[in-house]
Design a protein that fits this description.
N-terminal domain of TfIIb; mainly beta; Trm112-like; 29% strand; UPF0434 protein AACH11_18290; 6-stranded antiparallel beta sheet
Amino acid sequence: MDHRLIELLVCPVCKGPLQLQRDEQQLAVELQCPADRLGFPIRDGIPVMLEGEARLLDEPAPATQPTAQPTEQAG
C-alpha cells in the first residue's frame, strides 16, 4: 500500500489519523484509529473504510505490528 495514500486517509468516524498495521510478512492488514479504538481491514490491498466493517481494537486481532509513524513537531 502506498505510504502517500495512507497519509491522506482518515478515520471515517472521527476524521482522525490512522496507523498502519502489518503482519509477520510485512503485508498491510489493517488501518487503526487509536481515538475510536477501531480497526479497518485492508482486503486485496484496498482499505475498507466503512464503520460497519471495522472491528473494535479490544477484540482479538490478526497478528500485526505497528509501523513507524512520522512525529509532528510543535511549533
